[in-house]
Fold this protein.
Amino acid sequence: MYLNRLALVNFRNYAQQTLGFSAPKTILVGENAQGKSNLLEAIELLSTLRSHRTSRDRDLVRENETQGQILAEILRDSGQLDLSLTLRSRGRRTLTLNSEPQRRHLDVLGALNTVEFSSLDLDLVRGGPTERRNWLDAVLLQLEPIYAYLSQQYHHILKQRNALLKQHRREENRPLDPQQLQLWNQQLATIGAKVMQRRIRLMDRLQPLAQSWHSAISGQIEQLHLNYLPSVPWETEGPDQIYATFLDRLSQRAIAEQSQGMTLVGPHRDDVQLTINETPARQYGSQGQQRTLVLALKLAELQLIESVIGEPPVLLLDDVLAELDLKRQNQLLEAIQDRFQTIITTTHLGAFDAHWLESAEILTVSQGQ
Ligand code: ATP
Ligand code: MG
């Protein structure tokens, strides 16, 4: 997959800008606040229809303008795709694919696959369990679209079951209808087991890839481990086994659930433990170690998506080199070389070796140009 051209009109601090990407590696260099991250954000928006910096389209439209646009030409093995996204400071966004208006926006997902790394992604290791679950879910969505349905169903059941528990807590003299609760338990366990099983399978696939990237960037001195921490313990991975254990666990926690008025068991309470050389990275990892770890996870994600869709996604690296020592910077740049299209931002070119500088296209970003 290759992002060949990009055009921005009234997007963030860009008035009008057209770019061609003539090499698989692009370095965007510029001082602070010039528009480097804005450019990556535009690509991210076309790929995922979301920005990790804002959920409001009016933030994305250039100040004092009512409408902004991002256009891209994408080269796929199957041919060229033209994608455009129009954002409005008031009103709904619109999308076209090969000049055809797209009513169902979700259909456009997958036209351009990207994997992005920015400092906000460090929350994956520094933040709480929600961050890690969201990441697993986002990767699963890209790999198997049916997961969206499963996850929606699970959250629906969870909401209903929580409402029942909450009502019971509020009106203490009103006994909990055991049959109704049993029904929700069965549904929660059926769908919950499927969600967990998919997450565990994903972890098994990500683990060796992430380990190998992590070892390459750290210079073979660190060993990464991903460990899924389920709220429902299981011995085997079979869905029947998880289902039975799930129901057992629900009955063990029944009193606590009733007194707290919420569901305490299920994939919505699970976590992923990340360890470096058997030490938890969240509490003990240095800044550089944590950054290396998240990079390894992102690169593993990229490789996995590549193996599923048959083409490598575009890698977007925003300020990735900060906090990495020279050795790790070199090992990272060495490892990614020409394996996939990479667009990387930096405030200075000092970290790049001669080979990178010769083979990459260098674009200077200054005041939205
Ligand atoms: P750094 O090196 O600090 O990360 P950067 O080059 O990545 O800098 P960006 O985040 O791309 O910087 O750009 C930030 C600039 O864009 C800020 O000066 C901000 O004021 C401007 N900006 C953001 N949104 C808008 C908007 N809607 N309209 C006009 N300008 C905007
Ligand atoms: Mg930036």
User: Anything to note?
Assistant: The chain has twelve helices and 14 strands. The radius of gyration is 23 Å.
